[in-house]
Structure formats: C-alpha cells, structure tokens
Design a protein that fits this description.
By secondary structure, the chain is of the alpha+beta class. It is 39% helix and 18% strand. The chain is built from 16 helices and 22 strands. It has a six-stranded antiparallel β-sheet with strand order 2-1-11-10-7-8, with no helix packed on it. Strands 4-3-5-6-9 form a five-stranded mixed β-sheet, with no helix packed on it. The chain has a five-stranded parallel β-sheet with strand order 15-18-21-14-22. A hairpin with a 2-residue loop joins strand 10 and strand 11. Helix 6 packs across helix 8. It is globular, with a radius of gyration of 27 Å. The protein starts with a helix and ends with a helix.
C-alpha cells in the first residue's frame, strides 16, 4: 500500500467525520429492512454486496443473489460489476453487467435500492434520544451519537469494529449489539486475542483434531464453531499475530473454517464483532496489520470516547454503579455521593476509564463516603509521588540501597518492600478490616496477614 493510500484510511460511520477524505464514498440503502444503513468504500479493495454471509455488505433480501455485485472505489467514482446475479443489477431501469457510477447514482439489486454518496453530502447521524443501550449508560452527546450507531448496527448482520481506550467498555458494547440483534438467543463467544499464547490462538479460534500436535489428545471445537448461529467477539484484535491474519480474512470472506490438522472445511454462520485499543490505521501503515483485513472488519466502526471526554456522564455512572453494587452485593452501604464527592469524581481524569470508576465506587461502597474521599486523596497523593519519583530518578533507588546488592537479593528486598507498602495501603483504606482489604485487593486474607506478620517479625528481631 502506498503512502497516499495509507493517508486515505479514515473513520467509518459511527466514528469521527469522514468529510473531505480523498476518494471515500458511501453506500446508502434506500429501502427494505436495512433502510438508512450505510457502509464505506475505502481504497481499491473489492467490496462485494449480496445475501450471502461471505459478502462485505450482506442484504437479507430474497431477490438479491448470494454474491450479487462487486464495487471497486476508483477514487471519486465506483466501478460496479454484476457477479452473474439471478435478478440482475439495474441503473435507471436498464440492466448492466459493468458500469462506472458517480456520487448521487442510485442503482438497484433485485428489489433493494442503493445510492452512492460523497462524504461531504452525507448527513451526520443524529444522536439517539435514548440515554442507554443495553447496559451502556450516557446522556452526553458523544455517547448518544454512539448509541445512534449501535441502534443501526443491531438491525444488520454487518461486521463491527469497536475502538477505544482500555476500560471504555468495548466488550459491553459487543454484548449490547448481540442482545439487540436477531441473534440474541444464540451463543455469544468472547476471544481475548491478547491473553492467548501465539502458538495456541489458531486452535482457540478454529479448533483442532486429535493428533494435530503434541498434547492434542482429543478433537477440540474452536470459538468460531462454538459461536455458530450467534456472535463471536474478538477482543484486542490488534494483538493478532501477522501469520494468522490471512486465515481470519479467509474465514470472514468464505464463512468456512478448517480445524488445525483437518482436511475439510466446515461452514459457520457467525456475526463478527472485533475490538482494539490500538489505531489499526497506524498498524496498517506500519505494515503490521493487513489492509484487506481492516477493510473487511470495519464495515461499521464505533469509536468509544474516553471518560474524560464525557465528564457529564460521570455522576450518572457513579450513581448507577452504586445502585448496582447494592443489588449485586445485597449491601446497605451508607455511601452518600455528596456534591463534593461528585465534583471530585468529575475532576479526575480516570486513565482507567469506566472500569476504574466502577472499581472506585465498589471500593468506596464497601467502606463509606469517608473511604471514598480517602481513596481520592490517596490517588492525588500517589500522582504527586509518582511525579516526584520520576524527578528523583535513579537517586531514589540508590537511597534504598538496592543497587549495592546482588540482583537476586535486590529483587527480593524490592518486592518485599512493595508488598508491605501495598498491604498497609489497602488495610488503612479498609479502616483496619483485613477481610474488606483482601476483597478489594482480590487476594485471600491470609496473604495480607502473611505480609504484615513478616514485617512485624522483622521489626521484633531488630
């Protein structure tokens, strides 16, 4: 891909504006069940429309052939080629085999009408009037714009790419789309591409047969087969090894998988939703991610804003998380989200986004409003300490004396110092209650007892 083509990688509908992007064109469906739905033509990759699952844009219209028409963006106009469809492709009442179409052109596949639209003429999707979608909550304009896209995505079977920082709720978005679409009663299977060793991910996705490799003592069903009829969610797709990307592309194109070690392909009927916290456009430019796979995935793209970009949602989310904590834990907490606490929450940048906010509310609900205030003060103190330590640099380590020791001993002492500081922090935060501190730290209470006892014994020996 040339540098110029790389620059034309743009945001899909549901993300940032694509107006003014060179060569980008929009396909808009004008009638039928998908009326109002849109897809984007990027670069010069073939874009296939039809009723089959192996197409780029699937139209569930019985008058549309499985692979009906192929579009190729020529940079300002499109070459449309009929793929031998049964009911034909028409422009202005005349059937065609191949035709160049410009912006504004309306063409017909069976009973479905589509229009080619230039980006500058695309009306932005108005924000949804709803303040929630599934378990997602937000009254800010940014989130209501996201909800508007999700509402449209749920009416289609199109592949969705969800982009956003860690903690913004990408998996929750995928679940919400699945629960709102026609496949809601079928399986929803999650694959975390970042947590699976590279030598096992192919088996995780596609399965394997007995004897395919060492320790493959039985046949194994992969995630795509397990999700058959439903939705597969590929989380952190940017971590997918380059060697496996062509196989995933082939599955998206053919909707058939082959288990590791098998000779036969198996058809699968799945909707694919993917997510990443990376910029896949940058990955494509750096040649670490295939451009054709990117185009195949980003039929509909959803960009989730960070929590600091929608601060007006923080009070709403905080109250919702507190209520959810009460229901899930059957907890009559005395936590009161006072105006002062709401102001403190809203002024914090939340680098961990919605996930971090929920963790803080859960932690505070187990303590009290004073516990929440303390947690926030400690966050500010921790930030100041981090800055001061960064300025001190290596001198701070030298003061600890670790550099004067052999590596193993220095590592042992540094780890013990960290464990003690952490244990004292969570216990203080829990008001001295070891059980609550262990719950917040997500460790067994005996771990904290052991760390504190070790420090006490050391003091007694001195």
């Amino acid at each position: 891909m040339s540098e110029g083509e790389g620059e034309r990688l743009t945001r899909i509908i549901g993300g940032d504006s694509i107006a003014g992007a060179e060569g980008v064109l929009i396909i808009r469906i004008l009638n039928g069940d998908l009326k109002g739905s849109e897809a984007v033509l990027l670069g010069k990759e073939p874009f296939v429309i039809g009723a089959g699952f192996e197409t780029t844009l699937r139209i569930p219209d019985p008058s549309v052939s499985r692979k009906h028409i192929e579009l190729v963006n020529r940079g300002g106009y499109v070459t449309a080629r009929d793929l031998g469809s049964t009911n034909g492709s028409f422009y202005e009442g005349s059937r065609f085999d191949q035709l160049d179409l410009g912006p504004g052109a309306v063409f017909k596949l069976g009973e479905t009408e589509l229009q080619l639209v230039a980006p500058e003429k695309v009306d932005p999707i108005p924000p949804s009037e709803e303040t929630s979608f599934g378990r997602l909550i937000g009254k800010s304009r940014k989130m209501r714009e996201v909800f508007a896209v999700l509402e449209r995505a749920a009416r289609t079977d199109a592949t969705v790419l969800i982009c956003g920082e860690t903690g913004t709720g990408k998996e929750m978005v995928a679940e919400a789309i699945h629960e709102a679409c026609a496949r809601k009663d079928e399986p929803f299977v999650v694959v975390d591409c970042a947590s699976i060793p590279s030598n096992l991910i192919e088996s995780e996705l596609f399965g394997h047969v007995k004897g395919a490799y060492t320790n493959a003592v039985t046949d194994r069903t992969g995630a795509f087969e397990a999700a058959n009829g439903g939705t597969i969610f590929l989380d952190e797709l940017g971590e997918l090894p380059p060697a496996l990307q062509p196989r995933l592309l082939r599955v998206l194109e053919t909707r058939r998988i082959k288990r590791v070690g098998a000779n036969e392909f198996v058809p699968v009927d799945v909707r694919v939703i993917a997510a990443t916290n990376r910029s896949l456009e940058d990955e494509v430019r750096a040649k670490r991610f295939r451009s054709d796979l990117y185009f195949r995935l980003a039929v509909i793209r959803v960009n989730l804003p960070s929590l600091r970009e929608r601060r007006e949602d923080i009070p709403v989310l905080a109250r919702a998380f507190l209520e959810r904590h009460k229901q899930e834990q059957d907890d009559n907490t005395d936590l009161d989200l006072t105006p002062e606490i709401i102001a403190a929450l809203s002024s914090y940048d939340w680098p961990g986004n919605v996930r971090e906010l929920r963790n803080v509310i859960d932690q505070a609900a187990s303590l009290s409003s004073e516990g929440l205030s303390l947690a926030l003060r400690l966050k500010a103190k921790q930030k100041a300490t981090t800055i001061r330590n960064a300025k001190d640099g290596a001198s701070g380590v030298l003061v600890g004396g670790f550099f004067g020791l052999p590596y193993k001993e220095a590592r042992k002492q540094a780890l013990e110092a960290f464990e003690l500081a952490y244990a004292q922090y969570v216990v203080e935060l829990a008001g001295g209650n070891i059980t609550k501190a262990a719950e917040q730290a997500q460790v067994h209470r005996n771990v904290l007892h052991r760390i504190l006892a070790r420090a006490k014994n050391a003091d007694d020996e001195e």
